[in-house]
Amino acid sequence: MTAVKIERLITSGFIGTGQPGLPPEGIKLENNVWFVGDDTEVLVIDAAHDAEEIVRTVGERDTLGILLTHGHEDHIGAAVEAARLLDTHIYLHPDDLFLWDQLYEEASPDFQLTEGATFSVAGVDLTAVHTPGHTPGSMCFVAQDLNTVFSGDTLFQGGPGATRWEYSSFPQIVESIQTSLFTLPGSMTVQPGHGDHTSIEAEAPALDAWLARGW
To answer: Which residues cross the membrane (predicted)?
Structure first.
């Protein structure tokens, strides 16, 4: 049996192409795609921008599923093609289906993510935690055995994810972080949807500063 490992693939691409108020080509973003598994099987967390790069990173391993942290275009844009190429299933919280439908007219996620759902890979479990605020259906995935939480766009190095949309809520994302993430061990590594990792103990002391600035 090979050791379980966490891998990060950084992908880049444009979102919002052709939308009013944005450059014609859209906005370029870099995203983290996370892989948890061993040399035999793997779970993919988010499917951003580049299905072929995701497939190359998976290699010959059996893909047990694509877990989506939320429904924003930059996190789901390669999901359908990656799932087809990897012959696997897509999981998304139902509260973010309205965002999915803005990008995909015909395809649908295979399964709905729910609070407490557990996914096993290479002898470790990932537990789904509902953390609304950035989007209504935002999810984090806690791997206790790896002392890691995959936080999507809920928590970053330096604070919460953006809440500038009408369906977002700053008070709600703060509540989600306080009740679902800051209750995790302080040493736990936070692997976000963009940028570098942080930890629970590094971010928790800044809560009052976030509340004061309002974002």
So the answer is: none
Domain count, the chain: 1
> What's the rounded Cα separation, in Å, for the pair 30 and 25?
15
pTM: 0.96
Residues found in the chain: 215
* Gap between the terminal Cα atoms of the chain: 45
Q: How far is 155 from 94, CA to CA, in rounded Å? A: 21
Query: Which domain range does residue 105 map to?
Result: 5-213
pLDDT class of 1 with cuts at 50, 70, 90? low
The two tokens of residue 183 are: 């209750």
**Residue range 30-63, pLDDT digits in tens:** 999 999 999 999 999 999 999 999 999 999 999 9
What single-letter amino acid sits at 180? Answer: S
**Closest to 71 measured CA to CA, from 24, 107, 117, 20:** 107
**DSSP assignment, residue 135?**
S
Which CATH number covers residue 21? Answer: 3.60.15.10
116-136: per-residue pLDDT in tens?
999 999 999 999 999 999 999
What does the alpha-carbon distance between residue 161 and residue 185 come to, in Å, rounded to a whole number?
A: 21
